[in-house]
Amino acid sequence: MTELSHGGSVAGVVIQLPTALAELASSKTVELAVAFPADVGDALDALAASFPLLERRLRDETGALRRYVNVYLGGVDVRSLSGLRTPVADGAVLQIVPSVAGG
Amino acid sequence: MSTATKRLAVGTTKGLFLGSHNGDGWHWSAPAFPMTRVAAVAFDERRDPVRLLVGGMHEHWGPIVASSDDLGATWTEDEQAALRFPSDSGAAVAQIWQLTPGPVDRPDEVWAGVEPAALFRSTDGGLTFDLVEGLWRHPHRESWHPGFGGLCLHTVLPHPDDADDVLVGISTGGVYRTQDGGTTWAPSNRGIEARFYPDRYPEFGQCVHKLVRLPDDPSTLLLQNHGGVFGSSDAGATWEPRAVGLPADFGFGLAASSSATYLFPLVADAMRLPPDGRARVFASTDAGRTWQSRSSGLPERDFYSLVLRDALATDGRDGVYFGTRSGEVWASDDGADSWEQVAAHLPDVLCVRAFVQ
Fold it and tell me: Cβ contacts (< 8 Å) between A20 and chain B: which residues?
């Protein structure tokens, strides 16, 4: 974690992407610098700054997570935690997993 | 001698299929945008080269609006989201139902209709869109209700000679018209029946399924309603029933060329199947006052599929085309007099558009 002169800090969050979205980041993982303290929504805001096309595959224009997009933190669906307000720690890994849906 | 190439864009529940025919049969692409529900597609023939516009919704990854200036070889999607509600609206795009190029004298204007019912306008040829606030803030909007397909704005009809005059169709809201370029809107439903309301002729709230403007007479409109086929000779100010000769007045698909208007009737609201199990296109050459079956070559029995609201199209000449929910595409090159099947085994067809190059 990097301490900032105004008192905050920046740390790293890793986002792991499903194959279907990896092309939009040219990688299956994206490392982001996020101002701390931070939550899942902040990490996705940081993703939007670097990869806007990728981020809007995950959230709609109201900021809500799309219905069939799941974000796991430490193996737990953040919807069962505090959703996009779920805090993330330095070095957190967020795993994007599409729901089993469709026919 | 050069041969004209016919081109079809077929949007399905699982992607966009592009067909071409230049004299040696139809050739079809692999699906573009696979697993995306492509409900809107348009060839913008005002541009050189022709621009292909597509709007869809992926169950997982949300809406997409993309364009191609090389007939689908490559696609462009705006990085910041081509079409999205403003953040203060509290709304999110659930489906893109319609992409309609504007009149010739506004070559960069493209309209989009979406769910929840709203109209967007592009002034850069369909690359990016802005919400038409005048309709979004209309006091009637709170009273519109979703039909089976959701609360959608599914049809946009710009007047070819007056760019500020635009009609839209909303299910379930009815027909609305602006004559000042979208700033103000008024319902335009006088005479259109709503069989599902105690007041069968309300000011608004009709479940219009599709409306078309006759290319050679832009003040004449035809409308396939949720029960009833209606026509207007005064640009939508008033409507009257025009279903003489039809075996039933329910349906979705409706399309017009300069020579005729075409529709695909279904039995009724509670029986959404073709009458008598026959696939039949009906045509009118007198603005809907009379209709005749034109179905040579179409299945004459045991046909239980249907044609959705944007899955019937013309190429502006004598070409008429439709796609079915059972994944077939049929084509006629003689104004619907005779038909041949040109594709099968596709996913459910949502929309068809055609042009001749």
Answer: 60-61
DSSP B96-164: EEEEEE--TTSTT-EEEEEETTEEEEESSSSSS-EE-HHHHT-GGGGG---BTTBSEEEEEEEETTEEE
Q: Whole-angstrom Cα distance, residue B327 to residue B325?
A: 5
Contact B3/A at CB under 8 A: no
**Exposure string for A66-98, b = 16+ CB within 10 A, e = fewer:** bebbbbbbeeeebeebeebebebeeebebbbeb
Helices (H) and strands (E) in chain A, counts: 3, 8
**pLDDT value at B2 more than 60:** no
The reported pLDDT for the residue numbered A3 is: 66
Sheet holding B62-68, edge to edge: B36-44, B51-58, B62-68
The confidence score (pLDDT) of residue B1 equals 46
Beta strands A9-16; A29-36: pairing state = antiparallel
Burial of B73 (0-12, 13-18, 19+ CB in 10 A): exposed
State the burial class of residue B171 (Cβ atoms within 10 Å of its Cβ: 0-12, 13-18, 19+). Answer: buried
**In chain B, alpha helices (H):** 133-136
Collapsed DSSP state (helix, strand, coil) of residue B312? strand
Of A60, A64, A69, the CB nearest to B60: A69
Q: Which residue of B has its CA nearest to A67?
A: B60
B32 touching chain A per CB within 8 A: no
B81–A69 CB contact, under 8 Å: no
pLDDT digits (tens, 9 = 90+) for A88-100: 999 999 999 999 8
A53/B79 CB distance under 8 A: yes
Instruction: Please tell me the predicted confidence (pLDDT) of residue B80.
Output: 83
- Residues of chain B with Cβ-Cβ distance to A53 below 8 Å are 77, 79
Domains, chain A, in order of start with CATH, read 2-98 (3.10.20.30)
Q: Which residue in chain B is spatially nearest to A102 when comparing CA positions?
A: B59
CA of B249 to nearest chain A CA: how many angstroms apart? 32
Taking the C-alpha atoms of residue B121 and residue B111, their distance in angstroms, rounded to an integer, is: 5
Give the Cα separation of B306 and B224 in Å (integer).
14
> Backbone dihedral region of B59: left (phi > 0), alpha (psi from -120 to 50 degrees) or beta?
alpha
Task: Kindly state the helix (H) or strand (E) to which residue A98 belongs, with its residue range.
Answer: strand A92-98
